[in-house]
């Protein structure tokens, strides 16, 4: 402030207020510009999200359409194969029936018996299902009181005990049958081995020197026998009196 001059504080305050107002207006303009840019970015982001969502929905629709077409092709192929197999089975059955019908009049009832047995034949699963259906009884305990429930529980306990006893008996029976089958199989194997051994050829060649002391004469005998022979065992086990064994050669063809 220059000396000797009059100071106008109102003017200074006014200028300061104008400066602050200008700065505030600048900040407001910057804020609105930034907000405008953020709103534009937000609008662009929403548009991109919507476009991406629409693209994803379109992709899912196309994928679902392709999957439906694939399932339809699979179902059609399965249906076609089933029809071909059914037609093939029908043709085979027709051929079998034609062959059996052409074999003669005495085979006329054979086909009917076969069809009857085929209709009566049951698989293991069907037998099990039928047995369970026969043994399974509904509880029907909705209208029973305490005494009825106790009696029903006792009856079920006795039934479970009976089934466990039958299961144990059948298990022991199966073990005995397995043992008998194994024992008989081993016995048949031994018999088969003995029968094969009766037809194997054995060749015996042995020589002995007759005399006592110094050998005087050498006799060599060759035998070819078919086992069993009434002369074989005594021949092999005999000892020649007054003879010194010089050489013994035995060739055995054992069964495989």
Automatic annotation (TrEMBL):
Q: Which family does it belong to?
A: Belongs to the troponin T family.
Q: Which organism is it from?
A: Neogobius melanostomus (round goby)
Q: What does this protein do?
A: Troponin T is the tropomyosin-binding subunit of troponin, the thin filament regulatory complex which confers calcium-sensitivity to striated muscle actomyosin ATPase activity.
Q: Which GO terms describe its cellular component?
A: troponin complex
The record's subunit annotation is: Interacts with TPM3.
Q: Which residues form a coiled coil?
A: 146-173
Question: Keywords in UniProt for this one?
Answer: Coiled coil, Muscle protein, Phosphoprotein
Under the heading InterPro entries, the entry gives: TNNT, Troponin, Troponin_sf
Q: What is the protein named?
A: Troponin T, slow skeletal muscle
